[in-house]
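Are you able to produce any protein sequence you like plus the matching backbone structure tokens because I've never seen that pairing?
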Amino acid sequence: MTARPLRALRGPLLAGAAAALAVLVTACASGGSPGSGPTSGSSTPASPSPTPSTSPSTSPAPSDGAAPAPGEHVRGLPEGAEGTFDSPAGVAWSPTPGVLLVVTYGSSSCPRLAEAEGGWDDAHEAVVVGMVEPDPGPCTMDYAPTTSAVAVPPDADAGTPVTVRLGDLGEVDVSPRAKDATAGPVVWVPAGG
């Protein structure tokens, strides 16, 4: 006799479970965290997150090939750059004078980003670029590049090689651009820093 009441409840229980699953899928698809939205189709620069966050958000790479401005972060590699899975980060000169492009690899929804400005170390031997750790929390389990634009002192971009230190990721020697208004090649941090 108890089988009959359970059968009567089976339909409403299944309908309720299906509705709860639909709400959960919709919430996940809406990109519940900063920077977890779609990866293509928009060319707007990163904007501050409407919710409190310790790391800035990213936006898809501009479709017009324009280099990001200092303080902007875009998903993907600089235009024309070849990626690697053998390094956690790399640096290249932007076509814009006085701006470095810092590429980091990690979760596309919780990327490690470079700070908007870099400066000389105390000995004036290397440009130091601080890194912003991603927010803790659920992140996608992918391994994707994110590019941050970093303003540097004017004398760092004087047509000579410059050493760039990326927080605890390591350092690289970046050669000057081949010609004005062009990006330089990405120099990758050796594996292990």
User: Anything to note?
Assistant: The two ends are 70 Å apart (CA to CA). Helices lie at 3-29. DSSP finds one helix and twelve strands in the chain. The first strand starts at residue 59 and ends at 60.
